[in-house]
Specification:
This protein has 70 residues and is mainly beta. Helices cover 0% and strands 57% of the residues. A seven-stranded antiparallel sheet has the order 1-2-3-4-5-6-7, with no helix packed on it.
Length: 70
């Protein structure tokens, strides 16, 4: 997955699907605006830097994706 900010909105993209705009929810949680039931929750270190995110939908939960250096 590639997570980026486009036009002030969080966008999640991958090789198989069109980019998905994510809508903020409770702390560190975002849901897909296209109603695909995708939810991601960011993990941060003590300084606030993003370390990873957990993704899930009704069929699969807590799939962890670790941030790679750019």
């Amino acid at each position: 997955y590639d997570v980026s900010v486009m036009d002030g909105r969080l966008v999640l993209a991958n090789r198989r699907t069109e980019p998905t705009t994510m809508v903020p929810g409770v702390k560190e949680t975002f849901s897909a605006a296209n109603r695909s039931n995708l939810t991601i929750v960011f993990e941060r270190d003590r300084d606030g830097a993003v370390l990873a995110f957990n993704a899930g939908n009704p069929g699969a939960r807590n799939i962890r994706f670790v941030r790679r250096p750019a």
